[in-house]
Specification:
The complex is a heterodimer. Chain A contains 13 helices and 13 strands. Chain A is α/β, with parallel strands linked by helices. Chain A has a seven-stranded mixed beta sheet, with helices on both faces. Chain A has a four-stranded antiparallel beta sheet with strand order 10-11-13-12. A two-stranded antiparallel sheet of chain A has the order 8-9. In chain B, the strands form three sheets. In chain B, strands 1-7-6-5-4-2-3 form a seven-stranded mixed beta sheet, with helices on both faces. In chain B, strands 10-12-11 form a three-stranded antiparallel beta sheet. In chain B, strands 8-9 form a two-stranded antiparallel ribbon. The chains are: A alpha/beta, B alpha/beta.
């Protein structure tokens, strides 16, 4: 304001005159009259000790300065994976998700004026069901790790058993996030030792008290496994098989979890349509069999008709959810990853089956090329026999130190396994991922630098 | 004059009385848009990728051979499909979105722009910490703003939504009781009847028994009932403040004193923090843990139901139990503590794979920095002013659930005033859709019959409030005048008529399947 007496904040439309007129309409003398219920001792007399109102220019300058301190994936040879993958996302995706009608709408509780959101959720559910090879998929959870936790809890409800057998190939952070929650519920977990081919040890651990077996494919070391036999063994013992997939693109090349007999798929959908975002927001994929539907967590969109018989979509099966069932709900989840689902579904629609298969093959090709380049380095041993776009190598040195050395040279060489599980005694193991964004030149730069670093 | 080419001739309205239905189902700008699975997209793609040099044969039997069932769209088709869908949505950018308890406020686009800076969006969660110092600085800065605004010493950033934050808070409480050896005896959580459904659901999720606390006539926690239920078997209380009736809990000091005396912790559901931000610090009220919905108070977009973010501020007593990871400023730089060791020895675990909702952290910090401490205080004041204005302007026609005294950021009405009209809260809400508005929250909180909970937020102008109030008044008068048809069949003018939710739930159809006899590819 010209006289500096009043706050000028661009997002607040009320003027001083408006405020006065509104207070008069209410019958209040001042704004303080509306806060009379706050105990006097807790009323702040003025603004707290933080900076004051700032213009767009100032905020942009300050945040851009922070952003500039980070080394971005797109600016360097980049090989990090382990549950988050750099893919090219078509420009259309980010444009569409920023449309006001998608970005600034709420959960579609009034379906007559939310068909846009509901129809894309229905398309998303169909895409996820088909991609995972499962009969039904929900409208997303927070991320892959929370989807796994929800899957384990669901399995205990379905089987009325209390123990989860978790393969040593499951991402250690997924295991930790799951254990944190399910232990609070009194569910027991048996986590098998980490190994590149950890799935081989799983069947022997299935017992009459097993509620579910959790395996990941490709696993955290990149190993792709046919889990059909594990599914059969689990089901023969009355247990459910949960298949975790942290790289959704892999399902464009590898047999789907559904094809291999999964009862529940808990996946991370970030790879399709969503940026790395330093870990979030991501998108939890959750798919299962029809007969288990009523025990599942999260929202569903379903088909129905309106008063004129016209097809439309609504949120449905909400009798499982917290706002209806309260303490008897199947999960406490409310918010999902709506806009990330939209990004997923637009990217998947652009890909189509043809594009997805092509994308998956390109990822595999780049990973094979990277493997070949690294395998040629003396002292470097490739550990993963069959993989999609990520594999583990054993270095003659501490992998975390090598990663730091290469980072200082402007190369993000991958994820040291010790970052995920320092207690595993695999300090020399490096996880290396390649995608369609990996250039042949990047692979050469990595190989040359790694060779020098381990020499 | 010779015959004139009528292209470009100015049109004038003709006198046509009847409005015929369209032949195709389309209606003006509203396109009749099929599912992507019902189009011509089988085998198509809208991306141009290099031709792969491998066929995956090294993977042998692991290769997926059967059709997946994913149609493709060219880029122009994709753009049209989603733009057509978008036009069937209400949005805060279109009009007031007065959903009580949801805080649908303006989403500044600066925040979107900042979150998309490559330095934030194109960094990997497991990059060496030396390469993401700016990201850690942002998280540290956000933590500082959140702890200062709430007057709490610590914050756990990683919860991914409000309910996830509740989970975080209750797990911290549980860990604190375990550390004191009292977990086995403290198995109850007290929750007022007016609470969000997530509160009892979360308490049950963490293995607690939920005990309901009664509400007084004036819409607050019944302190006498609370006191009688507190004891050595209670782990925590979960109180929303301001509560879901839109009222500040006057006895909040007494509530926290009694809770602490009983050896329990005070969890505050911070869904309604927007009403008090900058004017009241929850830390001064004796709160031990409170989640903050960044997608409410700090304006990260709701995006059709997510993603959200639910950081939890913690008291001294609970801070040691916060889940990994978190950021520490070492003086020489920022460090991400990822494991339960050293300074994090008592952390109760981890809530998600990585660091939480970084994209939301950027947006929320951008929003806070824009407002500043003074702007945020004004946010609370304008939010409360707007709600009271609506309450004042509608109370002569509708029945305020708690007429005495001011409300906070939302105005609550019951359906007493609709008695004898044969019109329900639902009917009224659907008629509001016809007038171009998104309805208020209906039938919540459960403690008020036929509840209509209206939360305008601070980003509505007086003109928009007046427009909404006028529509509400006209509808209320129509209801009282017996214009029942206007309500019973509503909405008439929305993209869809009223939808059959019962049918959807009875025989769930949750995905598209190829119709019998169809020769489509999937």
């Amino acid at each position: 304001m010209p006289d500096g007496s009043e706050l000028n904040m661009r997002y607040l439309p009320l003027t001083a005159d408006d405020r006065e007129a509104m207070l008069a309409a209410i019958g209040a003398k001042s704004i303080d009259d509306l806060f009379v219920d706050v105990p006097e001792s807790a009323r702040l007399s003025g603004p707290v000790d933080l900076p004051r109102v700032a213009g767009e220019l100032e905020v942009e300058r300050a945040l851009s300065a922070m952003a500039a301190k980070n080394k971005t994936a797109g600016s360097v040879p980049f090989f990090c994976g382990a549950g988050a993958y750099k893919h090219h996302v078509p420009a259309t995706v980010d444009h569409v998700i920023q449309r006001s009608e998608f970005l600034t709408s709420y959960t579609p509780y009034q379906p007559e004026i939310a068909q846009g959101t509901l129809q894309y959720l229905y398309e998303f559910q169909t895409q996820v069901a088909n991609l995972t090879g499962m009969p039904v998929a929900n409208a997303s959870l927070y991320d892959g790790s929370t989807a796994m936790a929800e899957g384990v809890l669901m399995a205990t409800r379905v089987t009325r058993r209390n123990k989860a057998v978790i393969s040593g190939g499951v991402h250690p952070h997924y295991v930790k996030a799951t254990e944190t929650v399910v232990h609070a519920m009194g569910v027991e977990t048996q986590v098998l030792p980490a190994a590149v081919d950890a799935e081989a040890d799983v069947i022997a651990q299935i017992g009459p008290d097993t509620a579910c077996v959790v395996v990941q494919t490709p696993n955290v070391f990149g190993t792709a496994t046919d889990v059909t036999k594990i599914a059969e063994a689990a089901q023969a013992n009355g247990a459910l098989l949960i298949v975790v997939v942290t790289e959704a693109v892999s399902m464009g090349l590898l047999k789907s979890p559904g094809e291999m007999g999964a009862d529940i798929v808990a996946g991370e959908g970030q790879s399709i349509g969503n940026a790395l975002n330093y870990g979030g927001p991501y998108i939890g994929l959750f798919a299962t069999r029809e007969k288990l539907l009523r025990q599942t967590p999260g929202r569903y969109c379903g088909e129905t008709v309106d008063a004129e018989g016209k097809r439309g979509f609504v949120l449905t099966l909400s009798t499982r959810e917290q706002h209806i069932r309260r303490d008897k709900a199947t999960s406490n989840i409310c918010t999902n990853s709506g806009l990330c689902c939209l990004a997923f579904t637009i990217h998947m629609s652009l890909l189509g089956e043809t594009g997805l298969r092509q994308l998956a093959l390109l990822n595999h090709e780049k990973a094979l090329a990277t493997r070949d380049a690294l395998a040629a380095i003396e002292g470097v041993e490739v550990l993963t026999p069959r993989f999609f776009n990520e594999f583990a190598v054993k270095l003659p040195k501490n992998a975390a130190e090598v990663v730091e050395t290469l980072a200082a040279q402007g190369i993000l060489a991958g994820v040291p396994y010790s970052r995920l599980a320092p207690e595993a005694g695999m300090d020399d193991v490096l996880l290396v991922a390649a995608t369609e964004t990996t250039l042949d030149a990047d692979i050469q730069i990595l190989a040359t630098a790694l060779k020098a670093a381990v020499a | 004059m010779s015959t004139m080419n009528n292209v470009g001739r100015p049109t004038t309205p003709n006198a046509v009385s009847e409005k015929p239905a369209t032949l195709t189902g389309g209606r003006g700008l509203l396109q009749n848009e099929p599912l992507i699975f019902e189009g011509e997209g089988w085998g198509k793609t809208g991306v141009d990728l290099a031709t792969p040099k491998t066929d995956g044969s090294d993977l042998g039997d692991l290769v997926r051979r059967d059709p997946i069932g994913l149609p493709g769209l060219s880029e122009p088709e994709a753009m049209r499909h989603y733009v057509r869908l978008s036009q069937k949505n209400h949005a805060i950018d279109l009009a007031i979105y007065p959903l009580g308890s949801c805080t649908m406020k303006h989403n500044p686009r600066l925040n979107e722009k900042m979150a998309r800076l490559a330095g934030f969006s194109d960094i990997h969660p497991l990059q060496p910490q030396s390469t993401v110092q700016g990201a850690l600085e942002l998280m540290d800065s956000l933590s500082h703003w959140l702890t200062t605004l709430t007057g709490m010493p610590a914050v756990a950033l990683s919860p991914k939504a409000g309910a996830h934050g509740e989970l975080c808070g209750l797990m911290a409480i549980r860990a604190a009781h375990e550390a004191k050896g009292e977990h086995e005896q403290r198995r109850k959580v007290l929750v007022p009847t007016s609470a969000h459904g997530t509160n009892p659901a979360t308490a049950a999720f963490v293995g607690y028994t939920v005990v309901e606390v009664a509400q007084t006539e004036d819409g607050r926690v019944d302190v006498t009932d609370l006191a009688s239920k507190l004891g050595p078997d209670v782990a925590a209380i979960m109180v929303t403040n301001p509560n879901t009736c839109g009222l500040f809990e006057r006895d909040i000091m007494e509530i926290s004193r009694l809770t602490h005396e009983a050896g329990a912790y005070f969890y505050c559901d911070g869904a309604n923090f927007n009403a008090i931000v900058g004017r009241v610090r929850p830390g001064d009220l004796g709160v031990d843990a409170m989640h903050i919905n960044l997608h409410k108070t700090f304006s990260t977009p709701h995006g059709g139901g997510g993603p959200g973010a639910g950081p939890v501020v913690l008291s001294e007593a609970l801070a040691p139990f916060a889940p990994a990871p978190w950021v520490v400023n070492t003086g020489e730089g920022f460090k991400l503590v990822e494991r339960e060791e050293d300074e994090a020895a008592q952390a109760f675990g981890r809530l998600c794979a990585f660091q939480g909702q970084m994209g939301m952290y950027v947006r929320a910090l951008s929003y806070m920095m824009s407002h500043g401490a003074d702007g945020l205080r004004q946010v609370a004041e304008d939010a409360v002013l707007n709600a009271n204005y609506i309450k004042a302007r509608l109370s002569d026609l509708m029945s305020a659930a708690f007429p005495d005294g001011p409300c906070m950021h939302e105005a609550l009405f019951d359906d007493e005033w609709l008695k004898g009209t044969d019109i329900t809260t639902l009917d009224f809400a659907k008629a509001l859709i016809d007038e171009g508005f998104h309805p208020m929250t209906m039938y919540f909180p459960l403690v008020v019959h036929g509840a209509m909970l209206i939360e305008p937020t601070e980003t509505e102008s007086k003109a928009e409030l007046d427009r909404f109030i006028e529509a509400m008044r006209l509808l209320a008068q129509a209801a009282k005048a017996g214009d029942v048809d206007r309500f019973k069949g509503a909405p008439f003018h929305a993209p869809m008529r009223r939808l059959d939710e019962t049918k959807a739930a009875r025989s769930p159809k949750l995905r598209w399947v190829k119709p019998e006899g169809s020769n489509q590819a999937a």
